Structure formats: structure tokens, C-alpha cells
Amino acid sequence: MLGISSVQGQFLGCGDAFGSGGRFNTCFHVTFSSGQFLIDCGASSMIAMRRFGVDPNGIGTVFLSHLHGDHFGGLPFFLLDAQFYSKRNVPLTIAGPPGTEDRLRDAMEIFFPGSSSVDRKFETEYVEMTAGHRLEVGEVGVLPFDVAHDCGAPPYALRFEVEGRVIAYTGDSEWTGSLVAAGREADLLIAEALYFDRQIRGHLDYESLRSNLDRIAPKRLILTHLGPDMLARTAEVDCEIAEDGMIVELEAV
């Protein structure tokens, strides 16, 4: 059991969209004294939860950085598991960019026709996040920042405050100045690093991030969402790299 002063995170998935290196899609599980939440829920997230022994019924909120399948595509399976296997009977909050509820309904209808209209035995609340506006969901505060990543709806970096700790997450984005404010002096910055030094539209490379680290000054940095190029060059990296199942403890100062 976690002590009241402990916030714990676990990478349930730290891979790119295509499972490079055999890694699961993006999903980060946070546990604190009064609850649990997910940051993103990629398509493979239910498999990861089963592998790492995470009870989906304990998760109160799912926060979504953006609406690509490797970041939200696990939600149709999460909701159906909650209804039919896990027998969820407690409310679930899904917080995402504008359009989240419609996009999720469409995905459910594509994968499992009729599934979006089934009466559930638990309440599902959708909360729309807006860049620059702090949102309180229970004991968790989240501040979204606009980033640069084409996905059919606003993409965000997310800055969380939970029990006195700050967890920042870049989401998917090419380098943009908003990442400085999103991650500044965070206790933990989870940052995309799809490539080592190749700059492409919509995605972050390690060198661009490293050249701006003095401005961000996170207390701890962990790279995630690694592609084949980045995986081949991890020996050249001078910070932590996520692995599926990796646990992170954020102790009180």
C-alpha cells in the first residue's frame, strides 16, 4: 500500500503507434492516496493492464492528450470490459480535447456496432479540456497546453498537480515553445522522443528536447514513445528511458 505522501506512476505502455521494440501503446497509470488515473489509453492498454496486474475498476479518470488510436484507442475495450468482464459499478470520468465523446462513440461503433448505446451499470462522464484553462477532477488538477500534432482535434501537453507533485507530459508534438511552460520544474516530465535527432512534423526528437532542457528544468525526465531510430541509439542518451512496467515513485519533499 502507498503511504499518504506517496504518488506512484507506472508505464503500462511506452511505445510508439506501431509497437516498436515490442512495446505497448502509450498509457501511464498514476496512483495516489485517494485514487488512480490514466494518462492516455492506447489501443493495447487493456492487455498491458492485465499483464501488470492493474485493476481497471480502480481507475477513476482517464485523461487524454489527443485522439490518435495509440493514445485513446484502448477506451472502447476499457468500457466494454468494464461492462461485461470487470463488472464496474463506480463512475468513470473521461477528460479529453473537444470532440472526445463523439470520436470515442464512432470508434466503438466501428469496432463493435451497437456497443456505444448499451446501457452501462456505471456512470460515464465526459469532461472537455481547453488549453490554458485549469481543470479540477477530484483531487487532481490538470492544465492543458496547445502543441503541434495533427490529429483532427486539439492536441495537448498536460501538466498535472496531485498531492503536491507535478507530472508533466508532452503528448505527441514537434518542438514548440508551450512545452517549456508545460514542463517547467516538474517533479516528473514524461517526454516523447520518437527520433534521436531527426526533426519531423508533429513529433519530438531527443536533440530538440535536450537543447531546451535548461529552460524546462524538470527534476526528473523520462523519455517515452520511442521509434526504431531512437531505440537504436539509446546508448547515446543521458537521461532515463521508459520501459513497459517501469514504476516511478514521487516522494514528498
List the helices and strands and how they pair.
Layout: E1 7-13, E2 27-32, E3 35-39, H1 45-52, E4 61-63, H2 69-72, H3 75-84, E5 92-96, H4 100-111, E6 124-128, E7 135-137, E8 140-146, E9 156-162, E10 165-169, H5 178-183, E11 188-192, H6 206-210, H7 213-216, E12 221-224, H8 228-231, E13 240-241, E14 247-250
Parallel strand pairs: 3-4, 4-5, 5-6, 10-11, 11-12, 12-13
Antiparallel strand pairs: 1-2, 1-14, 2-3, 7-8, 8-9, 9-10
Structural notes for this entry:
The structure is a single chain. This protein has 253 residues and is of the alpha/beta class. The chain has a single domain, classed as 4-Layer Sandwich (Metallo-beta-lactamase, Chain A), CATH 3.60.15.10. It is built from 8 helices and 14 strands. The strands form 2 sheets. A 7-stranded mixed sheet has the order 6-5-4-3-2-1-14. Strand 5, helix 4 and strand 6 (124-128) form a beta-alpha-beta unit. The model has no long low-confidence stretch (mean pLDDT 96).
